[in-house]
Amino acid sequence: MSTVSNIVPFKSGGHIVETACRSLAVAASGLNALEAQFAERDFAGAFLRLIGLIMNVRGRLIVTGIGKSGIVARKMTATLTSTGTPAIFLHPADAGHGDLGMVTPADLVLMLSHSGESTELGPIIQYCKRFAIPLAAMTAQSNSTIAQAADISILMPPVQEACPNSLAPTTSTTVQMAFGDALAVSLMEMRGFSADDFHKFHPNGRLGAQLVKVRELMASGDDIPKVRGDATLLEATIEMTRGRLGGTAIVDNHERLIGAFTDGDLRRTLTAKQNLTESIGQFMTVTPLSVGPDELASEALRRMHDSSVMLFFVCEDERLIGAVHMHDLLEAGVA
């Protein structure tokens, strides 16, 4: 038997879509209100002080919250950690059972509570005061216990919840989440956090693959198929077969790339019944496409598609240092 006391009659599809759009409009109004807060001198000043504290903290940023604010705090922690700010999430329920021991005077505590009166946060506030640990608060109530206890108080704008009963945290948590992202992005810019740094924290999965550089996937050393400019067509063909990359580089005496010979070139040459003892210089492509070792593999793959080629030679300061095949990029998950 259903536990719902009042069963609402089935509404039309159009009505349901209107409800969904209305909730999004309410959420958007909350985000607009948050953006407007940054134009307020006190809010902007508190935000800048928080940025300064986080940048200068010797330990970690401890993010905490209970209920829906706790879920937002977890997400905020994950975003900060992956973008260069050492952060951990502290569950208030566990704090009073030993986990307060992870908080040190070198840390900074950031506490999320929409009402500012979550009793579960009390032990953390007391601990911060006892051991002089800096405390920052994110709350919508300026006169709340948490706001009054904090060294820095970030006051969220008053917003209307999208819930028809104005009870379920909806818009308020959306605003909290957006503020967390704004905080993380601001810290990224302050730290000069680059794509290289991002890759260090995201080595696996599709995201990591998009940040891999050519240097990490290229063949190098003896695995690079190459011959000198005075090699014969036969020698180039043998070297291309040995390399198993579908082509060979042609280099001068200083290892500079001067040409390329691919299996497509070989097919066209054999169709014309050329003498295999002739110089490869007659058959090579004299303007071969190349790529730098520090170029993103995803960009190299895009260039391969645009140029309809399967193989790039890798050059640094005009010298041949590697070769990368499209299959190597695809096998590594680059897309």
From TrEMBL:
The Gene Ontology biological process terms listed for this entry are: carbohydrate derivative metabolic process; carbohydrate metabolic process
Q: Which residues form the SIS domain?
A: 50-193
In its keyword annotation, does this UniProt entry include tRNA-binding?
no
**Known PROSITE patterns for this protein?**
CBS (PS51371), SIS (PS51464)
Write out the residues that bind Zn(2+): 91
- The reply to whether Metal-binding figures as a keyword in the UniProt entry is yes
Residues with site note (Catalytically relevant): 68, 120, 161, 202
Which GO terms label this protein's molecular function in UniProt? arabinose-5-phosphate isomerase activity; carbohydrate derivative binding; metal ion binding
InterPro entries in alphabetical order:
CBS_dom (IPR000644), CBS_dom_sf (IPR046342), GutQ/KpsF_isomerases (IPR050986), KdsD/KpsF-type (IPR004800), SIS_dom (IPR001347), SIS_dom_sf (IPR046348), SIS_Kpsf (IPR035474)
Q: Which ranges carry the CBS domain? A: 218-278, 284-335
Report keywords, A-Z.
CBS domain, Metal-binding, Repeat, Zinc
Q: Which family does it belong to?
A: Belongs to the SIS family. GutQ/KpsF subfamily.
> What is this protein's name?
D-arabinose 5-phosphate
Q: Which organism does this sequence originate in? A: Sphingobium baderi
